[in-house]
Recover the amino acids of this structure.
């Protein structure tokens, strides 16, 4: 009940988060972390996520950073008083991080990482590093609707197009919301990639680096196999189309036919219906990082051009997806034809059992 979540603190870098992150943090908690850098160096802090219940002067939930020796303080921070920049450069080798919460209704909580001015980036000269720690909280972007839903993806591929800069260096995307022990290997890369459509952007056919960095990490049970499409236990829909073919036979475009990769026709709502929805029951609460949609080309050229997403943990109370800091329901750009797959990532991820 102290409000402390994942914590990894070393002399040169580290990561910390509130309890249950990226799920809602508990009520009435308090946590204190003491960050220390070697003498003669200073701390650099990166705000990966600060999503605390908004309140006047951050009274309900707050993040406060303090240098006890210099008497310097940063914050308090919450959703309506967020840090001005994602990177805070201090002049101190010691910082105390204070996180407190009272009664609140929502919020993912806190994700923070740090490094020192002596080691602002992590550089790997070896062919293989096993194990090591990736201290920076980088978001995973691989994901799949069943349509296909993906849970965790723990193998990142570094390339000219797949690197993220942080603390003055470059590092390959590490798709694990908490970091941890990984194995890093360097292999021969794919020299060409085909065009694709994802997150509203259409890429052109182009070249990649000849070298590829791969981060390997074992899943923590009972999480689903990393990179695999999440299993849907039950499909539900607002309605389904019952087609009568030329021979007078009825063919149902039922909800259970919505799984990505299903042979033949897919799910379709009753023609003329408004506010149609498809509901996926994952059987238990999952961390959903994105969605892949595809149309139905057999026997018709059907596809969805745009859609919204909502989620629920109990199947009764639904929460629309608005993205990071969004005030309106996010509208995802869907398909432009019936045969190509289109990917959209959830940043931040959705933690729920039911997805519509």
């Amino acid at each position: 009940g102290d409000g402390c979540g994942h914590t990894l603190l070393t002399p040169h870098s580290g990561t910390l988060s509130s309890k249950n992150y990226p799920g809602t943090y508990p009520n009435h908690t308090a946590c204190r972390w003491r960050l220390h850098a070697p003498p003669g160096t200073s701390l650099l802090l990166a705000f990966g996520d600060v999503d605390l219940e908004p309140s006047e002067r951050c009274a309900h939930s707050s993040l406060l950073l303090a240098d006890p020796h210099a008497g310097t303080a940063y914050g308090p921070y919450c959703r309506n008083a967020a840090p001005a920049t994602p990177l805070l450069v201090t002049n101190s080798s010691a910082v105390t991080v204070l996180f407190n919460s009272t009664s609140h209704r929502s919020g993912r909580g806190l994700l923070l990482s740090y490094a020192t001015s002596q080691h602002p980036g992590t550089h790997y000269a070896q062919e293989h590093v096993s194990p090591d720690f990736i201290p920076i909280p980088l978001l995973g972007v691989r994901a799949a609707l069943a349509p296909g839903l993906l849970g965790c993806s723990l193998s990142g591929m570094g390339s000219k197009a797949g690197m993220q800069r942080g603390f003055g260096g470059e590092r390959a995307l590490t798709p694990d919301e908490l970091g941890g022990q990984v194995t890093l290997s360097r292999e021969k890369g794919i020299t060409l990639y085909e065009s694709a459509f994802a997150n509203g952007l259409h890429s052109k056919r182009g070249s990649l680096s000849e070298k590829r960095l791969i981060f390997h990490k074992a899943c923590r049970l009972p999480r689903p196999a990393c990179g695999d499409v999440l299993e849907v236990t039950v499909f539900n829909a607002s309605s389904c189309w019952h087609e009568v073919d030329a021979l007078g036979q009825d063919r149902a475009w039922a909800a259970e036919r919505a799984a990505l990769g299903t042979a033949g026709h897919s799910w379709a709502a009753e023609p003329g219906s408004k506010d149609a929805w498809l509901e996926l029951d994952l059987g238990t609460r999952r961390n959903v990082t994105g969605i892949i949609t595809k149309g139905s080309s057999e026997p018709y050229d059907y596809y969805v051009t745009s859609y919204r997403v909502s989620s629920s943990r109990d199947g009764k109370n639904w929460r629309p997806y608005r993205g990071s800091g969004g005030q309106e329901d996010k509208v995802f750009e869907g398909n432009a034809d019936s045969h190509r797959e289109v990917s959209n990532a959830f940043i931040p991820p959705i933690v729920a059992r039911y997805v519509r």
Observations:
- The longest strand covers residues 278-293.
- Residues 121-146, 152-181, 218-226 have pLDDT under 50 and may be disordered.
- The chain has three domains: 4-116, 149-160+179-220, 234-355.
